[in-house]
Design brief:
Elements (H helix, E strand, L loop, with lengths): L11 E5 L6 E4 L14 H9 L5 H6 L2 H5 L6 H14 L10 H8 L4 E2 L4 H7 L3 E2 L3 E6 L5 H11 L12 E6 L6 H10 L4 H6 L1 E4 L4 H9 L1 H8 L2 E7 L3 H6 L6 H22 L2 E6 L1 E3 L10 E3 L2 H7 L2 E7 L4 E8 L7 E7 L2 E3 L3
Parallel strand pairs: 5-9, 5-12, 6-7, 6-8, 8-9
Antiparallel strand pairs: 1-2, 3-4, 10-11, 12-13, 13-14, 14-15
Organism: Tribonema minus
Keywords: ATP-binding, DNA-binding, Nucleotide-binding
GO molecular function, one term: single-stranded DNA binding
Length: 346
Amino acid sequence: MSATKQKGQAAVVVAQAPDAAYEVVVRFVEIEQLAKHAINAADIQKLKEQGIATVGMLFQCPLKTLHDIRGFSETKVAKILETARKVDPRAGIIFRSGIEARDERRNVIKITTGSAGLDGILGGGVETGSITEFYGEFRTGKTQMMHTLAVTAQLDIQSGGGAGRVVFIDTENNFRPERIENIAERFGIDGNEVLENIFHCQPQSHEQQMDFVHAVGPLATENGPIRLVIVDSIITLFRTDFSGRGELAERQQKLNKHMTSLKNIAREFNAAVVIINQVMADPGAISMFATVKPVGGHVVAHASTTRVMLKKGRGEERIAKICDSPLMPEAEATFRISDGGITDPE
């Protein structure tokens, strides 16, 4: 893994891009830098407890949330924000040209799924800086996809990886270290080293799930680079903790905040956020590919940049269909589940 970190600086150099003479760079300023400008250390710690680990994340946070922090008056919040603008002018309200946006896209890393066919319809692999959703019925390869990505995200960029660490938020007790070791062997890397670079957690409620996501920011600044955040699955604990139509509005509101937190992490740290979603029957469906639909409604749909439906095929073969993407057209690819993870059909 070729990654270097410059503590407290505005840049983390990740790796040399394989096809151009530039480096993939993640730019952020750690929230601790505010201490050099007369912001109290206790207040900085309170921000970190809310998952605000960088100046950029501070500006992503709604004012209401900042005002709700104990001891944070409107005057104090205004002072912190004014100081943050001085520390990192890029984090304020700025416009940029289309050319600048294009140049920033050069920092996007494509992480291989292990299948060349699936990578092809994704435009080269799972993108960093955004949320990719995989959904489907049981035994369609969702969790096997996550295990494979947890390994490939640690490969060098030249090998189709992300040269970074992985956060695995496991809400369904699906994480199996033995699978990680098998997949690592396929890619010729040490299984123990791969497991060492995975931060695994098992939340037991939707509140814990949201808290673990808030902890990713501080984790990335202290142990970065975090190149992949997996949530398997995004909806399980929300469905458990909220039942019936009477609690649906509250569930969707909290789920929306959760998805926004994940989206902010993806942008701030140039990380790929990959979520697994469950499905439910769609009685109004008229085509064979639409007999089920993903859970979470419009909240998950709008927050996910790329949506991929997985479907059972013959034997160990599975079918992936791009259902929504701002870059790639709708397309299908067949992949296979092997001892070494996701691969192409034989």
